Amino acid sequence: MKYLFKSNQTKWVIAIITLIFVALYALMRVLPSSDCGFLHYEEIVNDNGEIEFCATNSAGFIDLSQLTYPVDLSMEWDAASKLGKLSFEMDGGHFLYPHDLVLTHTKKVHLLFIDESMEDYHHLHPKLEDFNKDYSFSFNPLNGGKYNTYVEVVPKRTRRQLIASGSLDVGGSPSPQKFSRKIEDLEKGLNFELIDVPGEIQKNKDYRFKLEVTDTEGRPVALETIMDAKAHMVAFDANRKGFAHMHPYEETFGARESQLEDLSFIFNVPHQGWYRLFAQVQLNGVPIYGQFDLEVN
Fold first, then answer.
1. What is the pLDDT of residues 54-70, one digit of tens each?
2. Which residues span the domain enclosing 80?
3. DSSP letters of 30-53?
4. Can you give the pTM of this predicted structure?
5. Which of 24, 52, 257, 293 is deepest in the core (most CB within 10 A)?
């Protein structure tokens, strides 16, 4: 009788362990099949047939006064030649080399500059040399003072976005900031307009704006593809605490087949105050930036 009890008990233990492993197997089956999917990144094959393992899809504002990343940005820049170089050192003491990074929106490194007046914005892609920790770039500032710098990368090991930030003093005096509500802009023969912007914008709330780009006659413009989309947007707060790097709505939420036709963007920021937005498009291989101002209550 005692032996029969032990035998039944053993069977129950085996059955329970089996059920646990079956449940774990089922759970693993429903998890995304790649690190990118698990971290809500989208695995993309671009026009060159290259896989972009972790294209970032965040539409939110990255407040670098509240968030810290385990990376330090070192940067040098020569005012005479306009040439510079940068490197990324992780908290563990090792540097990030080009082969350590994955493509995000067709590029491995996205380098953003914004001056103190928030009139001069640059989106650059430094040159890469494998087995060289230094990334070179050319930067021609239009204003004086200090430029805030933000660099976006995604290491292969973690599949997580890293933001390295700092500042670059280019000499001279900065220009003052000037804000007033602005949803239309004319730049280099292109009319930029934000559609469906409400009269009052609240913080921590999603808004969907549509970007329309026309020529001086009001006709649609055949925009070139840049970073795998027809347009990109970035928003900075007046205090330059951080930024939002926005991509077309369909790309952000997965319907990539129509993203090039509908240039809609999701805007959601955490603080009150003024925000400057830049819409980046490309014609004849030249980037063109439209500029907007929105006040958030």
1. 444 455 899 999 988 99
2. 51-169
3. HS-SSHHHHTT-EEEE-TTS-EEE
4. 0.78
5. 52
